[in-house]
Amino acid sequence: MKLSEIKQILPELQNVEFQLENGTFVPEHFHVTEVGIIKKHFIDCGGVIREEQVVNFQLWNANDFEHRLKPAKLLHIIELSESKLGIGDFEIEVEYQSYTIGKYDLAFNGKIFVLQDKTTACLAQDSCGIPTEKMKVNLGDLKNDVSCCTPNSGCC
Prior knowledge:
Blueprint: H1 3-9, E1 18-20, E2 30-43, E3 49-61, H2 71-85, E4 92-97, E5 101-108, E6 113-117
Parallel strand pairs: 1-6, 3-4
Antiparallel strand pairs: 2-3, 4-5, 5-6
């Protein structure tokens, strides 16, 4: 989800709710402690130099059980970060503490925001030697009425 998308969704909501893909909800007394931009400049294993930018939201649980972040307040925080930090319309990445700091993509299911699991991947599979997955075939399932290696066929 891009920043412009969440800005369109927030005014339509009564509450801001986040849920992990496994169904677990982020406690309703969470805080958004950071909104910022993360820039990543790196080289992949194929030698290609790359740059990525994401808008970062950090969610945090405190012992402040009476706290409830309302959509208008989150929208204000986003707009403030845009004006003060010059944040563009990039994809949103959410940091949320579970066993360690997790990073999630953000989606919306029509009612709540969903923290989608992220995975790592090789960006240069064609140049770093990762074999393409071969189709698995049971040789007994192959039906070939004519042998390719008959006498004088030239195959051997």
